[in-house]
């Protein structure tokens, strides 16, 4: 069974992120996958304080080791990201700068939201994850803060919801293929 890590992507007080994470969780329930929500805020990560770059996989701090252990066991990921100032949220970028090899040879999907559905954040994330040797699927579940939230409550429109199925299908197919790649690399 495919294990998906749903990475919650905001530290902002009153963030919309938990509502989108809950929706993703509902969509994954009864789909033949195991999933777990992983929230970087639960690990007390300060601004990046590892002397050795994450690609070396030589973590020195206890908080980094715990964060890496929480991220590592999944076959695939869905990153739930807001778009802040036409790019990615700094707190999530900081958390993901701590780790790298945990994402190697695994697929990543995105669920984004913002004034323009978070598409610029997703494009920036694609560059970050390619550096970790991860593959990002094309389709995204993207939501507008103007049409998919009513008075701060997540109420996605059908046109915004529709790509989720294709996104998940690709994520699951790629996760199976990448299991073979990881096995050969081991």
TrEMBL record:
EC number(s) recorded for this UniProt protein: 1.-.-.-
SUPFAM superfamilies listed in its UniProt record: Flavoproteins
Pfam families (alphabetical): FMN_red (PF03358)
Origin: domain of life: Bacteria
InterPro entries: Flavoprotein-like_sf, FMN_Rdtase-like_dom, NAD(P)H-dep_reductase
Keywords: Oxidoreductase
A GO molecular function held by the record: oxidoreductase activity
Keyword Oxidoreductase: yes
Record Gene3D superfamilies: 3.40.50.360
Location of the NADPH-dependent FMN reductase-like domain: 2-145
Protein known as: NADPH-dependent FMN reductase
């Amino acid at each position: 069974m495919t294990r998906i890590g749903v990475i919650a992507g905001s530290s902002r007080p009153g963030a919309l992120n938990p509502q989108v994470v809950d929706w993703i969780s509902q969509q994954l329930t009864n789909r033949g996958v195991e999933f777990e929500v992983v929230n970087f805020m639960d690990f007390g990560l300060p601004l990046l304080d590892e002397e050795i770059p994450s690609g070396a996989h030589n973590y020195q701090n206890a908080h980094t080791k715990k964060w890496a252990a929480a991220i590592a066991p999944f076959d695939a990921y869905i990153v739930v990201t807001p778009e802040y100032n036409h790019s990615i949220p700094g707190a999530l970028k900081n958390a993901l700068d701590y780790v790298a090899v945990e994402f190697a040879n695994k697929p990543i999907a995105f669920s984004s939201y913002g004034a323009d559905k978070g598409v610029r954040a997703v494009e920036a994330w694609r560059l970050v994850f390619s550096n970790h040797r991860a593959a990002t699927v094309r389709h995204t579940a993207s939501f507008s803060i103007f049409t998919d939230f009513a008075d701060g409550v997540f109420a996605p429109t059908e046109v915004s919801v529709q790509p989720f199925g294709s996104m998940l299908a690709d994520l699951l197919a790629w996760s199976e293929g990448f299991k073979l790649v990881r096995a050969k690399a081991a």
